[in-house]
């Protein structure tokens, strides 16, 4: 089964998570969102999409990619979604309020993938970064590998 992880990354954290997930799935490859287009999704059996959370959403580039997928393209495709995010428990009051108001990117990515015909096979997952530019919180790359191994 052809498996692809498509991601966007600003500071390299989401890319590290995408690579860890791809490495945990036999013959999967990770592609930055600008390296692919919806035509590349034909024949994909497993599609995993990830993005940093920005204002509760995926990056603009990833949102545009998702919107460009024609409805029904992902019929019979297993899908999963992830994001990188701040931990709510270590945040100040204002950041907690923003998080509770806007949520995270992964659930929105998953909903969009399902609207395009994809079959969500695992709940959306978030991986924690220690600050705006990272680094990843301790243990998150290992957790990403474990999460990815559940997908194949």
From TrEMBL:
PROSITE patterns: FLAVODOXIN (PS00201), FLAVODOXIN_LIKE (PS50902). GO terms for molecular function: electron transfer activity; FMN binding. This is Flavodoxin/nitric oxide synthase. It comes from the Bacteria. Pfam families: Flavodoxin_1 (PF00258). InterPro entries: Flavodoxin/NO_synth, Flavodoxin_CS, Flavoprotein-like_sf. Residues 3-152 form the Flavodoxin-like domain. It comes from Candidatus Woesebacteria bacterium GW2011_GWA1_41_7.
């Amino acid at each position: 089964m052809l498996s692809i992880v498509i991601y966007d990354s600003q500071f390299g954290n989401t890319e590290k998570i995408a690579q860890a997930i791809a490495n945990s799935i036999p013959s999967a490859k990770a592609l930055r969102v600008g390296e692919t287009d919806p035509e590349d999704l034909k024949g994909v059996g497993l599609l995993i999409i990830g993005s940093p959370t920005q204002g509760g959403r995926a990056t603009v580039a990833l949102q545009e990619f998702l919107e460009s997928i024609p409805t029904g393209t992902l019929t019979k495709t297993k899908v999963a979604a992830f994001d990188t995010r701040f931990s709510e428990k270590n945040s100040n009051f204002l950041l907690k309020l923003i998080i509770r108001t806007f949520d995270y990117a992964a659930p929105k990515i998953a909903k969009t993938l399902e609207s395009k015909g994809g079959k969500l096979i695992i709940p959306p997952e978030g991986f924690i970064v220690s600050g705006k530019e990272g680094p990843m919180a301790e243990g998150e790359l290992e957790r990403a590998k474990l999460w990815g191994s559940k997908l194949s």
